[in-house]
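Let's sit down with a protein and look at its sequence and fold side by side. Once you have written the record down, we can walk along the chain together.
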Amino acid sequence: MAASTSVKVVLLDIEGTVCPISFVKDVLFPYALKVLPDTLESQWDNPDFAKYRNAFPSEYSSSKDALEAHVRDLVEKDVKISYLKSLQGYLWEEGYASGDLKAPLFPDVATKLSEWRHRGLMIMIYSSGSVAAQKLLFKHTNAAPTSDLTPQIADWFDTVNAGLKTDPSSYKTIASKHPELLPDEWLFLSDNVKEVDAAIEAGMRSVVVQRPGNAPLSAEVPQRLQVIETFESLDHDFHLRAS
């Protein structure tokens, strides 16, 4: 990751990077499905809910049963589509507020975010989950003494305001929102190799994060990309620390 410029922005993925994949797949997704039937029954005609319902294709938004079946099908197939992500964020909001949901960050995350902010770096988020869902997650974490980490985050990106995470043009879109920064002043950290490749193609620096519970990496990945298991593996200049 040698370069003449310094990193000024750390752009973070969420799932498998700052918190376990299992939290999303085994806690958040099932929670949304659990509360969905009661929510559809009680909120169907509520104007606050209408924007989430009406974002679905008309063949699903006209019927509670059709919408619920479609949501369950999308979740089962792990389809990342904006109208589903928005609805999930709405469903999770009450769970976070009640304390039923709390994001389990990896032990190094909160400390590193604070350290990077004190050094004057900007921290931004880019996740396939909606911006609203991202903010809920960072507002309700297991970090102590302060569980709300949203004040640490300078900007938020998802597939709606940036684009698909495996598309290099999405990272160019993100960079264009902050024209005062050069592309190689951005460091993107993600568990997804295709996303890391896309960020690099767009001119950013990027490192693969291999956390507990993530899928194994193929043997070729460490040969061509830098891989870390914790943010502590990066030194002050964001190079890999010597073993």
